[in-house]
């Protein structure tokens, strides 16, 4: 197996056979089954690219100071398996305090901007990802009015793009992932977009209202990220259970592709992965550490897993779970000096936003620091570093 590409750094990387996915509140529908309370994840995979490859001068991005977390629900009514309003909360990494007011995702059409709602009880939906160039945060949902059916419907799916001037655009909306939940979306540059759900991965472009021409692949997938020009996806189904490279004509395929599980992940047969972050932490070019969010109970291996590359094989090197009562779903992160700072949304009740600072000490001694707790009738899903 070849060493994975070096520049793996947009935020930190976050059942079994017969294509079976986890579902909310213990339900286990068959893979590809359509239910409004389907496998719900949050992922975001949160990784912070230390270098801005969009500019010819390769100017490093400033050190991140803020993150964005997706909140589902306005707190008025209990969350249900129907279209629900979402909000983007911008908060400080240092202490979790709010920066301005939460930005509401649109619940009505306004000009070219479409509705973007999420299923209230679907924890697998709502990944946030920051584009590889660091300038945009992406979120996916439904062009469906609040209270209506979402993942079982045939209506359009909507992609929201938040830029570094805090402008939210939801004009990208068309018919894809029909009759299946829309879980995650990512981009390298804010223009080329990849979306994932129970029925596979599709490619589209910013502002498109045209149905994508087929799927790249039809494997049951959760969340997506791009590191070093390579598309990756998490899954909890069959032969793709774990973190996968998505390869076609290059590392960012636009037509057909295949999903290949990273070596070593197949040995962990009960993982429930969502967000993930990949980093190069040694002197050899190429990523050698992956952090992955796992939403199982803490005693069962849930939390933020640290995977390390040994030769050509990835091996689980421990799990960050101290001060958690359940696992995690959303994940973002960045390198700060000799440390790795991780931001995660938890699968606890109520969900929280927590941070970990991996300073190389014994992993079971690294505790979570609480940054925010979801209010009654709301839940946190995806998390990402703020666009720069």
Short précis:
The chain is mainly β and 388 residues long. Helices cover 0% and strands 39% of the residues.
Structural account:
The protein is mainly beta and 388 residues long. It starts with 10 loop residues before the first strand and ends with a strand. It has strands at residues 11-13, 46-47, 66-72, 83-84, 86-92, 103-104, 118-119, 128-130, 136-142, 157-163, 168-174, 182-187, 192-197, 200-205, 224-227, 230-235, 242-247, 258-261, 273-279, 289-294, 303-310, 313-320, 328-336, 339-346, 352-358, 369-373, 379-385. The strands form seven sheets. A six-stranded antiparallel sheet has the order 2-1-19-20-21-22, with no helix packed on it.
Give helix and strand order, one letter per element, not per position. Answer: EEEEEEEEEEEEEEEEEEEEEEEEEEE
Sheet of most strands? 6 strands, antiparallel
- Give start-end ranges of low-pLDDT stretches: 4-58
Count of strand segments: 27
Count of individual helical segments: 0
Question: How is the secondary structure organized here?
Answer:
Blueprint: E1 11-13, E2 46-47, E3 66-72, E4 83-84, E5 86-92, E6 103-104, E7 118-119, E8 128-130, E9 136-142, E10 157-163, E11 168-174, E12 182-187, E13 192-197, E14 200-205, E15 224-227, E16 230-235, E17 242-247, E18 258-261, E19 273-279, E20 289-294, E21 303-310, E22 313-320, E23 328-336, E24 339-346, E25 352-358, E26 369-373, E27 379-385
Antiparallel strand pairs: 1-2, 1-19, 3-5, 3-27, 4-7, 5-6, 8-9, 9-10, 10-11, 12-13, 13-14, 15-16, 16-17, 17-18, 19-20, 20-21, 21-22, 23-24, 24-25, 25-26
